[in-house]
Amino acid sequence: METLAGKFLIASPYLPDPNFLRTVVLMVQHDQEGALGLVLTRPINLTVQEMWKNVSGEQVDATEHVLQGGPVEGPLMAIHQVEELSEIEIIPGVYFAAQRENIEPLIREGERPYRLFLGYSGWAAQQLEDEMEVGGWLTLPATKEPIFESDTDLLWKSVAGEVGSNIMRQSLNLKSMPQDPNMN
């Protein structure tokens, strides 16, 4: 089994779960026991500043929105670029943290860019593979820039567009295809 950790999952129209309509999920872990990912395209009506004031009583300068990482409840989680505050390296230079002692300095010291998540996307053993087998998900190797894109509509369009271009290149057996078809 090839791991999907470090990849983007893009929900296809064949995925019936409304929790994932027009989503891009960054896969954090994936093995024979199951998978964990975080939805990058679901901001909630709560800023980091508001959330931190509620949790700690402290004021921070952070107007970014907290993201709904998925339908499964869980602890506050973060994706960031500070190796010393990490528990897992997702891709080179991008790290995951769920421990309070790793998340607090990110928020307090403004170690940007980072993304904070409430909830996560989780799959039991073989569940994600079954969803992929019926065409529920498309994949793309994750890259750093889209992970920290603040415009979630732009993020979805760019990642979905790249998947579409890859499918066209493969189906037409092209070595290269311009981003803009008008360039032909």
From TrEMBL:
<dbReference type="Pfam" id="PF02622">
    <property type="entry name" value="DUF179"/>
</dbReference>
<comment type="similarity">
    <text>Belongs to the UPF0301 (AlgH) family.</text>
</comment>
<dbReference type="GO" id="GO:0005829">
    <property type="term" value="C:cytosol"/>
</dbReference>
<protein>
    <recommendedName>
        <fullName>UPF0301 protein C5Y83_12110</fullName>
    </recommendedName>
</protein>
<dbReference type="InterPro" id="IPR003774">
    <property type="entry name" value="AlgH-like"/>
</dbReference>
